[in-house]
Fold each of these.
Amino acid sequence: MHGKEKEVVMVVAHQVLSAMHAKLENPYHVALEQYDRAVRYLEISDGVKEFLKYPRREFTVNFPVKRDDGTVEMFTGYRVHHNTVLGPSKGGIRFSMAVNLDEVRALAMWMTWKCALVGLPYGGAKGGVIVDPKTLSPHELESLTRRYASELIPLISPHSDIPAPDMGTNPQVMAWFMDTYSMTVGYSVPAIVTGKPVNIGGSEGRNEATGRGVIICMEESLKDKGRYRAEDIRVAIQGFGNVGSNAALYAHSLGYRVVGVSDIEGGIYNEHGLDVEAARVHLKKYGNFDGFVGGERINNEELITCDCDVLIPAAMEGQLTQHNAPHIRASLIVEGANGPTSPAADDILNERGIQVIPDILANAGGVVVSYFEWVQDLQSFFWDEDEVHRQLERAMRKSYLKTQEMAEKHDVDMRTAAQLTAIKRVADAVTVRGFYP
Ligand code: NAD
């Protein structure tokens, strides 16, 4: 084969492989398969079953951003409302190169189930922009955020759709979002987004809420398995951003042994336990874990299969697959990320007796405190941190117990139990409201 032909064959092979990979890991296919697995336990009409599979609205925006050097670059963003039957839609905004419409659809659908499971008066939404925020200067990041926010104005308001942070976005991004909306309508509207800085209407305790909620779920599951000492439980966490680092810090503060953590460039492992605060400071200072003295360097695949009792995937979807599930050594998995486990991996883990606390339950702490923030903003009456932590803990433990009861009632795993509890709540609301017109 000549060089050119060989190149064409390789390109085609790459495309076929990518298509296969995309089909296997497509998060929307995963979300739909999870839905199908759960919905068969429910007695709901075929019309309602079909209705709940579809996103209500999908919005795509293409917009320009002026770079610091004066050049103009086009970006693409999305906002999807999956369901709005229980209330305004709620969901984060992701800035990542991996963003695509199917990913946003899946994340919006999971938000519908998450809000329903924990009893919030919200539907589900998600948004994202295809961008690596690390490649933008602070000024470019602000311009991109403001233009994307302004493109979403027809969709968002404190009573229709309330964004929040997710991968690649943070309280500063939410502040620009809130300012852009407020400047457009002509007065300050703190309730337009959650996850804002506290000094402009953010809630105490929001930043660490998702990570804390993950650890609360971990504790509930460990308690179920019998008496234990925190220092004997070895925890490994993939992803050291908002969710992963706060889960690690909270677990460490409660006395658990955090043996492994990682970010996109790999991680660190120490069987005796890591100094989590030192790891956080190191990552902030150097941008990766190279040169960290308190642990050996490992890659992300090694983190997933490392020797530990609890594995917390807290990076992104599609991380636990049929390829690595047979090698996972943890006996408990608590999903900090959304959609980290494929259905095929779920089957393997269930068969191996490894309990999985699903994303829509385990990482719901973020949206629970986002709800508290929204309520505080609408009432202009703010709670102290202890009150937020107390209410978060109450909501998480209650949701855990509700899910566990459902799992026992139907003799199903925790993911199916969480999904069917959530789907039932939304389906009942659809049924009583009826279809318009
Ligand atoms: P983040 O951007 O703050 O952190 C993401 C972390 O994951 C970073 O450490 C990054 O380096 C790492 N990472 C990214 N890709 C990776 C890969 N392929 N392998 C290993 N590590 C990788 O994001 P976050 O807000 O912590 O969100 C993480 C996950 O949790 C996402 O799935 C998100 O949807 C979910 N989640 C977040 C919240 C929230 O309140 N922030 C709430 C619920 C769920």
Amino acid sequence: MRTPIIAGNWKLNKTSREAIVLVEELKREVADLEGVDIVVCPPFTALESVSEVLTETNIALGAQNVYWADSGAFTGEISTPMLKDFGVQYVIVGHSERRQYFGETNETVNKRLRAALAHGLTPIVCVGENLAEREADQTFAVLQTQVQGSLAGLPAGQAGLTCDEMNKIVVAYEPVWAIGTGKTATPSMAQEAHAFVRGLLAKIFGPDTAQSVRIQYGGSVTPENIAALMSQPDIDGALVGGASLKAASFAAIINAARK
Ligand code: PEP
């Protein structure tokens, strides 16, 4: 049985002070909720303050990106040891906005993911087709390239981790045309993509590990559409952008996703 996982990607929003207000409210809204893993991913500048508010709560801390080297001459980058210093447990890698605006490729996503795993962080690896690719019937081909590229060299090349431990990776299927647009994939469209991704994972890690990997849907998730998405057999949660910026709507999504 896969525990649902709901993660909030705050993107380039919230100062440290605003972040504290949001997470204090969220903490009250979801106190004592069980049957769901809850993650918030504030901007780097708010990680420390949010981390303090989240101590001994049921909300885990995530980051929106990470660099693969631990330290060195890489101006502007943030490493896994730096994230862990703030109690970060999850990190988003390969978000479509990083791929689209910051030149991320499957190769660099793979490096980030491997650095995260090597340091015991749980990567949330994002994949998804854009509108032109969907309209050209390329969705499965794009997903295959992104999943295989992002997970290249695993598990054999990942020192110290067995195939079974690979189940800590979270995959987020995020059709780019649905992100921030108000256009959600229908539950059956999302299910078709999730089942395809799980099949790819089975080829890489074997069927048992593939069955335990959680695959989130992302793209204009709201309190109104989450239940229908979660009713699909291969949808194990959501990566939520806009609706995670208000405690009430994020809490409503979390509540609806609980087993
Ligand atoms: C996202 O940022 O990953 C996302 C899915 O955003 P939104 O929920 O706003 O579409």
